[in-house]
């Protein structure tokens, strides 16, 4: 049994981690931290988990609690991991962080996109960027992994193989992606309340969404990214465009790149978010448009699955020498 601590266990990603861990053959959630819900039973905070975790409760984080754990997941609001990372790293416990705090390569890029200085810049080099399909070997040997952002994952996975094959102009990439409301977190906000989002479709973060920095870092390209909020609970559909270097078959290029990947499925059909809901699956398609000389590439993921908790567990499996697909599935919940 691998004793697992979750920082941020009371949020949506924390709940998804708990759901996935409950079916994992090796991991067990033994310490569940969440200051705002401290003292409450898991069944009250996450009613869908009441039968899976009877008697479990959320507690307030204390450093001493890390003495009896073998793995740490952090699903905290932005900025919190910077204050806790040194404490966790000095324990030499495998650590997977979902926050944006350690995803970028350098503090100057972080400050540019996040608007303030990094509080622990010396630790940036301690983390491996967490998309297994890109960095599998580095993740296997890492003690600390910064799991990729949900939008970034949805854009990087379809575009990276095409850039690596020199099929597209790296200065021409445009990403339009729509996310379910759970991507905004559990805290009540007017912008993501039912009355605001129901029956509406809106863009936000124009020209400056922070996941742009991850996309550009991982792709080695220039990206114009526009996120959208769609009135559904979970899922991301990313529609990506780029100028082709010449006539090509991008669908075949994706099929070749991901032929041996357990969670990536390349399909001729335009994918839908419902196909991957509740799973760690990724569905991709692509077209070359001879008329305009551009590529159209589409990806669908679950923002709480491959975009968050599922990818965290996939990374942890690699770090711990467990089968990479343990506790995870590509099977979506449909309809």
UniProtKB/TrEMBL annotation:
Active site per UniProt: 150
Keywords (A to Z) from UniProt: Amino-acid biosynthesis, Arginine biosynthesis, Cytoplasm, NADP, Oxidoreductase
Record-annotated Semialdehyde dehydrogenase NAD-binding domain positions: 3-142
Signal peptide, first to last residue: none
Protein's cellular compartments: Cytoplasm
Enzyme class (EC, first level): oxidoreductase
Pathway membership: Amino-acid biosynthesis; L-arginine biosynthesis; N(2)-acetyl-L-ornithine from L-glutamate: step 3/4
EC number of this enzyme: 1.2.1.38
Source species, domain of life: Bacteria
Coiled-coil intervals: none
This protein's record includes keyword Coiled coil: no
Pfam annotation, one family: Semialdhyde_dhC_1
Primary localisation category: cytoplasm
Catalytic activity field: N-acetyl-L-glutamate 5-semialdehyde + phosphate + NADP(+) = N-acetyl-L-glutamyl 5-phosphate + NADPH + H(+)
Function: Catalyzes the NADPH-dependent reduction of N-acetyl-5-glutamyl phosphate to yield N-acetyl-L-glutamate 5-semialdehyde.
Similarity comment: Belongs to the NAGSA dehydrogenase family. Type 1 subfamily.
This protein's name: N-acetyl-gamma-glutamyl-phosphate reductase
Organism the protein comes from: Sphingomonas limnosediminicola
Gene that encodes it: argC
